[in-house]
C-alpha cells in the first residue's frame, strides 16, 4: 500500500467513524458487560448501541480482516491497523465483544469446511450466535490434553458425556466449541476432536461458579447423553489438538493485548488525581519509581506489539509470539492493577458506595488475577517458550 | 515508520556480522588486553573505514553515505555481540553526532569528510563527575571576539589517548550557556592521563589549563534541546551495543544450558532454569523493540526522541544487568573464570550501563519528561 493510499484510507475511515459512531458509543468503558455481546440471551442496551453495531456490521468492520462473504471487510493488516488507530483516537467502543471473532473464527477459517465457514462465520459477524469455550475440565487444566469428556460415534451422530469447567459466560452462550475425547487408546494428544455444540440441545446444563469478586461470570457445563450431528465436527476426527492449539494462540494474543488502552485505568492520571506534585514531582519517591517503571515496560510492550505487526506484514511471523504476549501482557496488567490499588489507597476498598461504583476498581483488581491463569497459565507460557522457541530439552 | 529493517539495512547487518565474527571476536579483545601494546587494532579500523562504517550517518554533501542511524545501529549491535574494540563509539557515534547536530557549515565541511575518509579520530569530553549529567559542568570558556581560553577538567573520556581531536563541552560566561569547542588533542595546555576500565578499554582524564581557542573552533549551542539531542542519539546508539552484548551473552548461556550435564541430564531440563531463560528471552524481545523504535525516531525526526532515548537506555540498562548476572550464575564455577568469554560480557555491560547515564538516571529523567 503506497503512502498516498494509506493516507487516503485513514482520512476516509476517520470521516466515516466521526459520522457513524454515536457520541454515547465513545469514551471510557467501566465494565465490558456494558458492551454488546450478541446472541439470543443478550439484547442491545440502547438505541445508539444498536445503531453503532449495525453501521459497523454493514461496513464489514465487526471482523475487519475477514472476507466479505463471511460478513467481514476484507481489510489488509495495514488497513486494519489504521482502522484500530482511528477507532482508538475517537475512543470508539467495540461494537461487538465476541469469542467468535477472537477465538473460534480464526480456527474455522483455517480448519473449517466451506459449509461451516459460511454458516458460523456469518452468524458471528451478524451477532446472532454467542459462543462459549469448552476446553478445561476439573482434571484437565494446564494438562489440557488429558481431557476426558467423551464423544462416541453413534452412526449418524456423536453422543457426548462429561463435563467442562470455568466456561466463561457459559450461561449466556448459545453454542459452545468443545474439545472431546474420541479415542482413549492412543497418546492423549492423538485422541482429541473439535466439536461445535448447540447449548440448547437436550442434556446440556450449566451451573454458576462464584468468584472471589462475588460475581459469577463462569460456569460448570455438563453434558449428559447429548446428541451432536456429525457435520459439527471441525477438521478430521482425532486431529482436534492441532486446532485447539491454533485457537489458543489467538486467545492468548487477545488476553495479552487487553487492558492496555483502557482509558479509565491510566495509573498516571490516577496518580496525578491522588497526589499534589511538589516542585513538579510526585511526593512519594517509591510510588514515582513504581509508576515510571510500569510506564517504561508498558510503552515498550506497545512498541513490541507494533513491531510484531510490522514483522508479520514483512512476512516474518513467529507462532510463539502469542505466548510472549500472553505472558507479558497479563503480568503487566496485574502490575498495573496493583499500582492503582496503592495509588488509590483506602478509598477504593469500599464496596457498597455509589461514589466509587461499588468498588469496581477493586473488582477489576481481583479479576486481573485470573489473567495469568486463563488461556494457559504464565508458567505454561514459559514452558512453551523454553521448549518451542529456545529449544531447551524436556528430558 | 515500520519497525523492521529494509533490505539495505539487513544486508549491512549481515555483512558486518560476518566481518566482525572473523576479524574482531572476543579473542581479539583478549589479545589487546594481554599484549597491552595499543588501545585498539589499527588494521581492523582501516578495514572498517574501507567498508564505509565511518560514513554511515554523514550526509552525502559532506562525503558520507547518508545511510542513517538505523544503519549505524546495526553495526553497533554487532560490535556489542563480539565486544569488538574500535573508535566507533567515540568518533562515529558521539563526535560525528555532535558535529551533525550542532556544527556550523564551516565545521561540517572541515571535519565530516575527514571522519568519513577515516583520516581523523575524535573523542567527546563531557563528563566531570562519577555520574553522567550534562547539567554538572564546570569547564569554562572565556574571552571575546577572536580569541578564547579554556579551563577545566574532564573524566572518563572514551578513546582520549588515540584521538586526533577533542570536542569539549563547556560553559560560556553564564551558568546556563553551553558551548562546544573542538581542538587538537596535542594543543598546548592539555594534559591527558590514561586509565584502563573494568572492560579493558581505555579512557582519559583530561585537564585544560589556559588552552588557547580560535573562534572557528567554537561550536555554538543556542538551544539546550539540540545538546540533549546529541546525547539522546548517543544513548540510543549505546543501547544498540548493549542489545548486542545482551543477545550474545544470552545465546552463549543458552548453548551452555543445552550442553552441560548434571544428575545425568542436561541442566536445560531443569524448569527453574528454563523459566528464567524464557523471561530473559521476553525481555530481549522488548529491548529489540525499543531499540529499533529509537533508531527510527532519530532518522524520522520524531519530537519525543528524549522520551524514547531514556526509555531505551533505562530498559537496556536493566536488562543487560539481568542477563549478564544470570549468564554467570547459569555457567556455575566456570563462569567465574577468565578461561571462558562470559566474564568479558558482564565487564563490558557494567561500563556501558554507566556511560551516558544508568537505569536510575534515565528512569528519573523519563518521569521528569512525563511531568511527574
Ligand atoms: C477468568 C478465567 C476464565 C476462564 N475461562 C475459560 C473458558 O471460557 N473456557 C475454558 O475451557 N477454560 C477457561 N478457564 C480455565 C483455564 O484455562 C484454566 O484455569 C487454566 O488452563 C489452568 O488450569 P487449572 O485451573 O486446572 O490449574 P492447574 O493446571 O491445576 O495449575 C495450578 C498451578 O500449577 C501450575 N502448573 C501446572 N502445570 C505446570 C507445569 N507443567 N509447569 C509449571 N507449573 C505448572 C500452574 O501454572 C498453576 O500455577 C478460565 C480460567 C479463568 C481464571
Write the layout of secondary structure elements.
The complex is a heterodimer of chains A (395) and B (372).
Chain A: H1 3-20, H2 47-59, H3 77-89, H4 99-111, H5 114-125, E1 131-134, E2 150-153, E3 157-168, E4 175-181, E5 192-198, E6 204-209, E7 218-229, E8 233-234, H6 240-257, H7 267-274, H8 285-313, H9 321-344, H10 360-368, H11 378-389
Parallel strand pairs in A: 1-4
Antiparallel strand pairs in A: 2-3, 3-7, 4-5, 5-8, 6-7
Helix pairs in contact in A: 1-3, 4-5, 4-6, 6-9, 7-9, 8-9, 9-10, 9-11
Chain B: H1 7-23, H2 26-35, H3 42-50, H4 69-82, H5 88-102, H6 105-117, E1 122-125, E2 140-144, E3 147-158, E4 165-172, E5 178-184, E6 190-196, E7 202-214, E8 218-220, H7 224-257, E9 261-262, E10 265-266, H8 271-299, H9 305-331, H10 342-354, H11 359-369
Parallel strand pairs in B: 1-4, 2-4
Antiparallel strand pairs in B: 2-3, 3-7, 4-5, 5-8, 6-7, 9-10
Helix pairs in contact in B: 1-4, 4-7, 5-6, 5-7, 7-8, 7-9, 7-10, 8-9, 9-10, 9-11
Structure, briefly:
The complex is a heterodimer of chains A (395) and B (372). Chain A is an alpha+beta fold and 395 residues long.
State the share of residues found in helices of chain B, binned by percent: 40-55%
Shape of chain B: globular
User: Would you tell me which CATH topology of the largest domain in chain A applies?
Assistant: Butyryl-CoA Dehydrogenase, subunit A, domain 3
What's the structural domain tally of chain A? 3
Q: pLDDT average of chain B, as an integer?
A: 97
Give the CATH architecture of the largest domain in chain A: Up-down Bundle
Strand content of chain A: 5-15%
**Tally of contiguous helical segments of chain B:** 11
Q: Which stretches of chain A are poorly predicted, pLDDT < 50 over at least 5 residues?
A: none
Helicity level of chain A, as a percent range? 40-55%
Structural category of chain A is alpha+beta
How many strands appear in the DSSP assignment of chain B? 10
Measured between the Cα atoms of the first and last residue of chain A, the distance is 48 Å
Overall geometry of chain A comes to globular
Task: Give the CATH superfamily of the largest domain in chain A.
Answer: Butyryl-CoA Dehydrogenase, subunit A, domain 3
| CATH homologous superfamily classification of the largest domain in chain B | Butyryl-CoA Dehydrogenase, subunit A, domain 3
Amino acid at each position: 500500500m503506497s503512502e498516498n493510499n494509506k493516507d487516503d484510507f485513514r482520512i476516509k475511515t476517520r470521516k466515516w467513524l466521526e459520522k457513524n459512531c454515536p457520541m454515547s458509543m465513545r469514551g471510557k468503558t467501566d465494565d465490558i458487560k456494558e458492551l454488546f455481546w450478541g446472541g439470543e440471551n443478550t439484547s442491545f442496551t440502547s438505541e445508539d448501541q444498536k445503531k453503532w453495531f449495525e453501521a459497523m456490521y454493514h461496513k464489514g468492520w465487526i471482523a475487519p480482516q475477514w472476507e466479505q462473504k463471511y460478513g467481514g471487510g476484507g481489510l489488509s493488516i495495514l488497513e486494519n491497523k489504521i482502522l484500530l488507530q482511528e477507532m482508538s483516537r475517537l475512543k470508539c467502543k467495540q461494537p461487538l465483544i465476541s469469542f467468535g471473532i477472537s477465538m473460534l473464527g480464526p480456527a474455522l477459517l483455517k480448519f473449517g469446511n466451506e459449509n461451516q465457514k459460511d454458516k458460523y462465520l456469518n452468524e458471528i459477524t451478524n451477532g446472532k450466535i454467542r459462543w462459549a469455550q469448552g476446553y478445561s475440565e476439573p482434571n484437565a487444566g494446564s494438562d489440557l490434553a488429558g481431557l476426558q469428556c467423551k464423544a462416541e460415534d453413534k452412526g449418524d451422530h456423536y453422543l457426548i458425556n462429561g463435563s467442562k469447567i470455568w466456561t466463561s459466560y457459559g450461561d449466556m452462550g448459545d453454542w459452545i466449541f468443545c474439545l472431546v475425547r474420541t479415542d482413549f487408546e492412543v497418546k492423549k494428544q492423538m485422541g482429541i476432536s473439535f466439536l461445535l455444540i448447540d447449548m440448547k440441545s437436550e442434556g446440556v446444563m450449566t451451573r454458576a461458579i462464584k468468584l472471589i469478586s462475588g460475581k459469577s461470570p463462569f460456569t460448570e457445563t455438563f453434558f449428559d447423553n447429548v446428541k451432536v450431528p456429525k457435520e459439527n465436527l471441525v477438521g478430521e476426527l482425532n486431529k482436534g489438538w492441532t486446532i485447539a492449539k491454533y485457537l489458543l494462540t489467538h486467545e492468548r494474543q487477545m488476553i495479552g493485548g487487553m487492558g492496555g488502552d483502557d482509558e479509565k485505568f491510566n495509573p498516571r492520571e490516577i496518580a496525578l488525581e491522588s497526589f499534589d506534585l511538589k516542585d513538579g514531582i510526585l511526593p512519594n519517591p517509591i510510588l514515582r519509581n513504581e509508576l515510571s517503571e510500569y510506564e517504561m515496560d508498558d510503552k515498550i510492550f506497545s512498541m513490541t506489539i507494533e513491531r510484531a505487526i510490522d514483522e508479520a506484514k514483512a512476512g516474518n511471523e513467529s507462532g510463539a509470539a502469542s505466548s510472549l504476549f500472553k505472558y507479558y501482557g497479563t503480568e503487566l496488567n496485574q502490575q498495573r492493577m496493583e499500582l492503582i490499588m496503592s495509588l488509590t489507597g483506602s478509598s477504593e476498598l469500599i464496596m457498597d458506595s455509589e461514589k466509587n461504583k461499588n468498588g469496581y476498581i477493586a473488582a477489576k483488581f481481583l479479576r486481573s488475577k485470573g489473567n495469568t491463569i486463563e488461556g494457559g497459565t504464565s508458567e505454561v507460557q514459559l514452558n512453551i517458550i523454553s521448549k518451542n522457541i529456545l529449544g531447551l530439552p524436556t528430558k | 515508520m515500520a519497525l523492521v529493517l529494509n533490505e539495505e539495512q539487513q544486508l549491512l547487518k549481515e555483512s558486518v556480522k560476518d566481518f566482525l565474527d572473523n576479524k574482531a571476536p572476543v579473542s581479539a579483545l583478549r589479545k589487546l588486553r594481554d599484549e597491552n601494546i595499543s588501545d585498539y587494532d589499527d588494521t581492523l579500523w582501516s578495514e572498517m573505514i574501507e567498508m564505509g562504517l565511518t560514513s554511515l550517518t554523514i550526509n552525502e554533501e559532506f562525503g558520507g553515505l547518508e545511510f542513517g542511524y538505523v544503519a549505524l545501529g546495526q553495526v553497533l549491535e554487532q560490535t556489542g555481540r563480539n565486544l569488538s574494540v574500535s573508535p566507533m563509539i567515540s568518533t562515529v557515534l558521539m563526535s560525528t553526532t555532535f558535529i551533525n547536530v550542532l556544527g556550523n557549515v564551516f565545521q561540517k565541511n572541515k571535519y565530516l569528510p575527514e571522519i568519513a575518509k577515516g583520516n581523523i579520530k575524535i573523542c567527546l569530553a563531557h563528563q566531570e563527575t562519577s555520574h553522567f549529567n550534562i547539567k554538572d559542568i564546570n569547564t569554562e570558556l572565556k574571552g571575546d571576539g577572536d580569541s578564547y581560553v579554556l579551563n577545566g577538567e574532564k573524566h572518563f573520556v572514551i578513546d582520549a589517548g588515540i584521538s586526533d581531536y577533542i570536542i569539549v563541552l563547556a560553559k560560556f560566561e553564564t551558568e546556563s550557556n553551553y558551548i562546544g569547542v573542538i581542538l587538537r588533542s596535542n594543543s598546548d595546555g592539555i594534559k591527558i592521563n590514561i586509565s584502563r576500565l573494568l572492560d579493558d578499554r581505555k579512557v582519559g582524564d583530561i585537564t585544560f589549563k589556559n588552552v588557547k581557542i580560535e573562534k572557528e573552533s567554537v561550536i555554538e549551542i543556542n538551544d539546550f534541546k539540540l545538546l540533549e539531542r546529541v546525547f539522546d542519539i548517543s544513548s540510543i546508539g549505546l543501547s544498540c551495543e548493549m542489545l548486542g552484548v545482551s543477545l550474545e551473552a544470552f545465546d552463549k548461556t543458552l548453548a551452555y544450558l543445552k550442553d552441560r550435564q548434571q544428575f545425568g541430564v542436561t541442566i536445560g531440563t531443569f524448569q527453574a532454569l528454563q523459566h528464567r531463560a524464557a523471561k530473559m528471552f521476553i525481555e530481549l524481545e522488548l529491548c529489540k523493540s525499543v531499540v529499533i523504535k529509537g533508531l527510527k525516531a532519530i532518522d524520522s525526526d520524531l519530537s519525543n526522541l528524549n522520551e524514547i532515548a531514556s526509555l531505551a537506555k533505562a530498559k537496556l540498562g536493566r536488562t543487560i544487568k539481568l542477563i549478564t548476572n544470570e549468564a554467570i550464575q547459569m555457567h556455575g564455577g566456570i563462569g567465574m573464570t577468565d578461561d571462558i568469554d562470559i566474564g568479558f560480557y558482564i565487564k563490558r555491560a557494567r561500563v556501558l550501563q554507566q556511560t551516558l547515564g544508568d537505569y536510575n538516571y534515565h528512569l528519573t529523567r523519563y518521569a521528569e519528561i512525563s511531568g511527574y
